[in-house]
Amino acid sequence: MGLISKKADWSLEDFRQHWLNHHGPLVKNAPGLSQYRQNHVVDKVQRGIDFEREPWEFDGFSQLWISDRDKPFGGGELPQRILADENHFLGRLHIVTVKQTTVVDVPGDDVRGKVKKRMSLIRRRPQLTEEDFLNEWKVHADWVRTMPGVLGYRQNAVIQREVHKGQPCSYDELPIDGIVEFWFESTDSLQSAFASEAGIKTMAHAKTFLSGITAFLVEEHRII
Which domain holds residue 98? Predict the structure, then answer.
């Protein structure tokens, strides 16, 4: 997954158009990818959660499912062309490798364009080990299953981090433990889900093992 910010002198509209219509088709040619999605940030409101935003500011999140881990972008000149284009329009690109768990089956592609998707960056409480966090996140999944109106829910546990592409870094350099994907029919149903009795209990549990949640409403595009 790529955590992406545009260059400061690019407008948001120009960034989105370039990422979707130029960079997307370029990456689509990579032979080592089985799936590729772009998530364009459209809203940064902390709906339904009682956590202050952490200082994470991103304009999009890429998701790449890799079928060839050694050469996901193939050989020849394509990797260099992709890197050159990233340097052209991106101001920042962090990379995280994740282990994905689907808790509530996500909507199919025929439905996704009609519903709302929220992605959240989460950080564990400092006194918890990574193992403690992962165990508690599994418990949290059971709480989420009880919430009304949840159309889909995935947990992406971070297992490797790169502040700079291709250079693994420490947890302290990129302290993100997981990325949540939530689908709801609308922002109103999102609010209602968290305001419900089950939602209140779910968030009470979140506070026992999380110190940070930073939410982004996104518009998802499937490239591959």
Answer: 2-222
